[in-house]
Automatic annotation (TrEMBL), chains A, B:
Keyword field: DNA-binding, Transcription, Transcription regulation
Residue stretches making up the HTH crp-type domain: 149-221
Source lineage: Bacteria, Pseudomonadati, Pseudomonadota, Alphaproteobacteria, Sphingomonadales
CDD domains recorded: CAP_ED (cd00038), HTH_CRP (cd00092)
Classification via SMART domains: cNMP, HTH_CRP
UniProt xrefs under Pfam families: cNMP_binding, HTH_Crp_2
Name this protein carries in UniProt: Crp/Fnr family transcriptional regulator
Organism: Sphingomonas canadensis
Length: 228, 228
DNA sequence: CGCTCAGTTGAAAGGTTTCAAAAACCGTGG
DNA sequence: CCACGGTTTTTGAAACCTTTCAACTGAGCG
């Protein structure tokens, strides 16, 4: 039973989060060390360069992981969705900052407790290994994008990714979960360049927009082609 | 005992590779499925988009992991050194190509056999998890570099990395393990840009070169500053 | 209804790439 | 040991794309 009075049994991501791999006893033990935490948009869970004190499962919302240079340039290096794990077990320091992109709720554990749960449960460890390998695959795809794709290709790629995640049917409208600034931060571009590329896609009839967030893909094939 | 007649006991990376976590029996079982393989510079172990058939430990040499776009643009997304693990357990398809940068020797296992060894040995699984988390950290640092650093910063960053790995004392000479082309492939630049940045660092007295590979860092502080 | 902030658009600047050619390097063979 | 030929590296100039700086527009909200 967590601080907020919700039990694991009624957790929105029960069955999808890492702790799905725990048996009843281990779950109870871990659960006793965890607590729910809500973050408003823009609030951070941890900061790069600071001690990596916590691990958490994202229950609802959306978070960004950002890396930054000494002089303040920033880059989003990952996005976390509900049921995703965030944190860095087995390391003293975090090298990313984790910030809520939308109002979010997490189940937070002291890092040491979470590590003990991992070590004590090979299934959960295996699950984390698989997820980490997938995250690494995604990171490598992003490296290719950041290093070799044009601005137009990057924007198209992101729109396809958002549409896929929004499970938007072809031509149907969905809301972008990111501002232009966040899109830029993710794609390694500037706000202006993102805006110009969206304008270009709209001019070519490939997408339609409605306000800043409303988005509809009119020509998925063309968008895929544009994504390189 | 592997094909080449060498046993694990006399393996050059025994104690550092993943299999250091295996007990005697498990090691014997895995070892029976593995074989040594030598690759000349430029030869590949696996190809992106093809079936991820093998896992391996790099015994000696150096390999690059490259991702590529449909139209052939390429980006190095990782480098493997002796004792490093290469391969993608738990996935049907590989999304990177693994190619030898120097004459290399690997201990290669069918993916299924390696996965069984992992599943049967929590210690090895834990070790792979830790290494994968470290690799992910490195990948994120690279994303930041590829997205936000200038050509000069990238080249300086790479030189520092190479010097560190070569354990070159301050001012001492060492050989770059990469050609200009490979440096460019790693840094998300072109050969010409890498060459121009090296020329600039040389002109500023920060480095000295001797042929294409010989490199000496004359002013480490300035180089660190230049790396951003 | 006006205010504020996010997003768009424009023009100029800047850095990197592209294309082209010269120079240096390296392994080979005489 | 030096000359040779192919390849890698360096250098130059122009083109290109993205960024920067600046101003405008539009949307959301009290």
């Amino acid at each position: 039973m967590s601080e907020t009075g919700k039990s694991c049994a009624e957790c929105a991501v029960r069955g999808e989060a890492l702790c799905a791999a725990l048996d009843e006893n281990a779950l109870a033990a871990l659960s006793a060390t965890g607590r729910r935490r809500r973050l408003a948009r823009g609030e951070s869970l941890s900061w790069a360069g600071h001690e990596s004190a916590v691990c958490a499962n994202l229950i609802q919302g959306m978070m960004k992981l950002t890396a930054s240079t000494a002089d303040g340039r920033e880059q989003i290096v990952g996005i976390a969705y509900p049921a995703d794990f965030v944190g860095r077990p087995f390391a003293r320091d975090a090298d990313v900052t984790v910030t809520a992109l939308a109002p979010s709720e997490l189940c937070v554990f002291p890092r040491g407790d979470f590590e003990r749960a991992l070590t004590g449960c090979a299934d959960m460890e295996r699950l984390l290994l698989r997820r980490t390998l997938e995250t690494l695959d995604a990171a490598r795809e992003r490296m290719l994008m950041l290093a070799r794709k044009t601005a137009g290709e990057r924007v198209a790629w992101l729109l396809l990714d958002c549409a896929r995640r929004a499970e938007a049917a072809d031509g149907s409208e969905f809301d972008l979960p990111l501002t232009r600034g966040e899109m830029a931060e993710l794609l390694g571009l500037t706000i202006e360049t993102v805006s110009r590329q969206l304008t270009r896609l709209r001019a070519r009839g490939i997408i339609a927009t409605r306000g800043a967030r409303g988005m509809a893909i009119r020509d998925a094939a063309a968008l895929e082609a544009a994504a390189g």
